Fold this sequence. Notes:
The structure is a homodimer. Chain A is α+β, with helices and mostly antiparallel strands. The two termini of chain A are 22 Å apart. In chain A, 46% of the residues are buried. Chains A, B: Keywords: Isomerase, Rotamase, Signal.
Amino acid sequence: MNRVDGKTWRVIRVTQPGLALCLAVAASLAGAEPAPPEKPRTMTDVLAASKPSDWRPLDPANTLYLDIAAGRVVIELAPRYAPQHVANIKALVAEKYFDGIPFIRSHDNYVVQWGDPNGGDKEKAKPIRTAKRHLPAEFSRPIDKALPFTPLPDGDVYAPEVGWSDTFPVARDPEAGQTWLAHCYGTIGAGRDNAPDSGGGTELYVTIGHAPRHLDLNVTLVGRVVQGMELLSALPRGTAALGFYDKPEQYVPIKSLRLAADVPEAERTKLEILRTDTETFTALVETRRNRRDEWYLKPAGKVELCNVPLPVRAIGKAAQK
Amino acid sequence: MNRVDGKTWRVIRVTQPGLALCLAVAASLAGAEPAPPEKPRTMTDVLAASKPSDWRPLDPANTLYLDIAAGRVVIELAPRYAPQHVANIKALVAEKYFDGIPFIRSHDNYVVQWGDPNGGDKEKAKPIRTAKRHLPAEFSRPIDKALPFTPLPDGDVYAPEVGWSDTFPVARDPEAGQTWLAHCYGTIGAGRDNAPDSGGGTELYVTIGHAPRHLDLNVTLVGRVVQGMELLSALPRGTAALGFYDKPEQYVPIKSLRLAADVPEAERTKLEILRTDTETFTALVETRRNRRDEWYLKPAGKVELCNVPLPVRAIGKAAQK
Lengths: 321, 321
């Protein structure tokens, strides 16, 4: 069966014929047996050689479990980038505001979104007890030495610099002294109306297509999906304008949205993510810049920020991707 | 109801406060009434002002209708980039090879793929009568003055130049004298095994996530989906390795795959696409580089190749996107 690519994790035979040739020529000049060519590492090799300290567990105080009929979606919040929105989402979660709130939108190659279908109607909107409905924008934050940053060397169409900060894909503008979370696949943002302070976290969207980076600096991003994206990205697309569902019977209700710290230990989904400030991650990025899996004939030599996977695994298990 | 962005197509009120301010200051200096600021155009405005000659109909000789239970997917082939593969796919379609062949793979943030589940088994593989099973690779082709090219000015992480050629997103390497179709959302490629000539068009994939541009120059691309992507992108994800479906009962069969030219006129889906060698398209790209819809607070100033939509409409109707 043909494959699009060789993503299977198996042993590489020969991937650098040029190098092998050079070694053969050198060996022939020296009259010796050619040394076996050094095998370039694939992502599988890099992950297999990772150390336990290359991984960090998700912090239960910043992890959400979004349960729908199809299963559980695990979300990691980014309090360093959107402290007020994250605190407000936790307050909404604590008062179980989101339980029963549905996915109301599935816009192809763009976003799925959940929120109160009556959110815009003061009379009918679901009441909020302790949390806030609106917050000032947190579109970017100052660059700070305390904030880790692993740069990607390949440039970016949208921002002067891109890379990762504590496993989150980020962009930076050193001249403006600002940094922000970048919209990649699975990023979660707070929907808003035209006013910058009209969001707050009661409506959240998840990107499901080609990274809509033009939304950067226009929306407060609050985190990203770490596991379960396939449950959201395959939701039937809405047929009304902007991918909203036409009829309430199409809504996909949230059974519950909980902070991991509030869930009994035995019911938690315990995951760890590859740290991005490690040599292992730098080696992984290199395997994505230059694919050496035997299927590839022409490595790209570069990689886009949003094409670098962030490996996640159950604690103590092999990496998922 | 909060929106992620202001994609609704409506009249813009004010979008350039900076410009408005400058005009007001200038007017105040001159002691005159301020002139109303010129409204920057949105994509809606640009499409509404398009001329009939800005559009070209799909050529029935290079258009496929892929019918599944959920509906029809309209595909445009790219014979200028993959002449042998396109001819072979037409031959396969002519002998109804694909009728009953299923989608066997739905890999999140990557591809859906159809093909003979027994394709790798010489005994069980579905027979091919006149077409070929394997073809030489057509990963790129020479740059040729006869080939139109509308460049995108914003650069690209993967290729020296990108832009559009007769509405297809393409990349180019002027030094190597080569050009190729770029993997964007909805691009269709011919799956292959490790050998470059192990594909041929019997298995085809469609990209459903962030553009996997690292596949460029590694696969023969044969065309793209023009309408109906949402029927493919929302297929349930496969749970076996690489997103293949675990069990045959999960397969999604193709009811029929036909060349538009072979379908009675009354049953055709008549579409036209915005030409990319027009001033209207250049203006549209500018509305994507700098979004002036009132929801946007900070236009990006640039745009990635794969974030520029290619508007399609039923002939004689308003544009779909």
